[in-house]
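Appendix C: a fully annotated inverse folding record. The material below is reproduced so that readers can follow the format used throughout the book. The structure is listed first as tokens, followed by the designed sequence.
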């Protein structure tokens, strides 16, 4: 019997059974074939992503990877190691060669996607609660960075539920939900991860090795509201 997995917000029905995770969706905008291609690409470059077992339109099955989500409650003494592991993984992802990545998530791609997307207005971040879609769009266009994008290979939805860690060592054992992986500004990942680590964002950025960029933090969190 397949057990429903409720952790995460992948937008698909996720179930598991006997070491296999199954993601299913009849939404044509949810490209599970593309996600499978991204998982395979990551594994080939040494990133601990699940092995793809079945991949076809509407269905993605992967082998289970060990570990606990970084979003789980962790003992207070382990918290610094969890944050450091997330920062180290992010830096490792961002050192993959951009020229080798066939997946494009630059603003030239993601902003038009955002403008065409439906927005879950009941799930906005607290600072934008009650905003209309028109207001979100106006803010997005007004604050789009005018400087060149700092391009790296990004996960695209990098947050603690999408990273699994070994409970003993706090080492990364798996990276999941990679449907938005591609070449993008590094702040795509940094903005989302620090949003998920409100008490540890400074430690995360210091471990990663970059000072905060408030304008890009705000913009890429705003952009995420559309996806």
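Designed amino acids, in order:
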């Amino acid at each position: 019997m397949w057990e429903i997995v409720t952790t995460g917000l992948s937008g698909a029905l996720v179930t598991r059974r006997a070491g296999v995770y199954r993601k299913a969706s009849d939404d044509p905008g949810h490209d599970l074939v593309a996600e499978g291609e991204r998982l395979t690409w990551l594994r080939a470059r040494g990133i601990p992503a699940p092995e793809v077992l079945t991949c076809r339109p509407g269905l993605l099955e992967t082998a289970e990877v060990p570990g606990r989500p970084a979003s789980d409650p962790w003992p207070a003494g382990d918290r610094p190691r969890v944050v450091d592991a997330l920062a180290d993984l992010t830096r490792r992802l961002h050192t993959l060669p951009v020229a080798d990545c066939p997946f494009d998530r630059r603003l030239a791609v993601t902003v038009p996607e955002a403008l065409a997307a439906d927005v879950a207005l009941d799930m906005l971040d607290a600072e934008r609660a009650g905003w209309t879609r028109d207001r979100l769009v106006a803010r997005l266009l007004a604050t789009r960075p005018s400087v060149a994008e700092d391009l790296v290979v990004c996960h695209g939805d990098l947050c603690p539920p999408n990273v699994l860690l070994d409970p003993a060592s706090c080492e990364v054992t798996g990276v999941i939900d990679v449907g938005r992986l591609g070449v993008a500004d590094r702040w795509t990942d940094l903005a989302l991860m620090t949003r998920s680590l409100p008490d540890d964002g400074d430690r995360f950025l210091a471990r990663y090795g970059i000072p905060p960029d408030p304008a890009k933090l705000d913009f890429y969190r705003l952009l995420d509201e559309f996806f």
